[in-house]
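User: Some background: our group keeps a shared notebook of sequences we're curious about, and every so often someone picks one and asks for a predicted structure to add to the entry. Today it's my turn. The entry only has the sequence so far, pasted here. Could you supply the structure so I can complete it?
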Amino acid sequence: MYPFGNRTEKTLMRRPFSALAFALGAMASSGALAAAHGQGAVYRVPVTGVVELGMAPFIERSLEEAAEQGMRAVILDMDTPGGRVDAAERIADAISDSSVPVYTLVNRRAFSAGALIALSTQGIYMRPGSVIGAATPVDGAGETAPEKIVSAMRSEMRALAEARGLDPRIAEAMVDPDIAIEGIDEAGKLLTLTTEEAVRVGYATEVEDMPELLALLDAQGAQVVTSAPNWAEGVVRFFSNPVVAPFLLTLGFLGLITEIKTAGFGLAGVAGLLSLSLFFGSHLIVGLAGWEDITIFGVGLALLGVEVFLIPGFGLFGVLGGLGMLAGLYLSLLGGLPTTVDFTRAGLVLTTTMLLIVVTAWAMIRSLPRSKRFLKSGIILCEGMERSAGYVSSPSRGELVGMVGKAITDLRPSGTGIFGDERIDVVSESEWITEGTPIRIVSAEGYRHVVRPVSGGSAA
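Assistant: Of course. Here's the predicted structure to add to the notebook entry:
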């Protein structure tokens, strides 16, 4: 389980995107929910696998739909080993704000962040052989987090238990191994309750299956509607995946670089902006990125634009722009409660992105000049001019050899001389020739006219 901490300003800035996630879900829904399921149905929401940030928008949207459709209750069908506490926090807040009663059916396991979510609901029901607890926060290496974090998590669990009228020390013992519960757990061990133990201490009610749970909720015969992630949430979770993110960033940067190097605005720029929009949009919705991260990235991009278009070379604005863009990307990969694992994963994504950009650019430089498509299009020059075929860079002017003129600039070794009424670019044969010195052309090879000073002569 990832460490718990107080809600930061950054986390609060990400929270409005739960509404955006719901909007995406609402647009993706078929619209047949209201027609097929009327007043009094029960909404079953599966909470399976690792609790991660992509799960929070799904559950938030499910609770909103349940309220809109007048569902009698929402049942979280839970089997999870735990996960991120910042995601569990979002889910717990959504449950607290829900106008529809929410209950948990522990269908095998509710460890770590799952225990926090279960305690936030109005009732916990457990199937035989299920377990709940083991909620101590750990760092990325799997070691127990510092006391400050453990204390915060312990207080959160105690507050949830007190709100439901449960023994708060049992909730604390799930977090702190130093708390012992007589007859169930001894000091030095984290508390994990079996179904029988949870029933005995009043934390849960045992049920065999969903129909029995419905009977206890006075909802016998109610239609059970199962919520499932829609295509929009699937797309968001796909593009926010740490494996996919480097490819989006690589395509985005290559598109922008190509657009800067070419005139106008074309397909490369569109592809680059679309890729970066998918990256930041998906990370905004799941809660990893915030507007402050995008602002930092945008400022960095603007500074880099100033360096490219307004101030030639690569100086202070270019360095600051590059650092700003990297900082914005790195922060957008961390989330509200980053751990060692998050820092490592963010660094790995950025490193992979840089490697992909370098490798792709190298491959393009090597392959494009030999590409038949590019050769036929005329984008790349594939023909040369040979002297043997009669092509020369400049016509030879043998009639200039022997002419005497005057250097009208210092020749060091190149400069300009005047011969009669004609100005000609010349180059000194060996020595530095000062302005005003009489000079003679000793050879003419295309555009190259070699001169030497004339001793005691006069200019022509």
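Suggested note for the entry: The radius of gyration is 36 Å. The longest strand covers residues 102-111.
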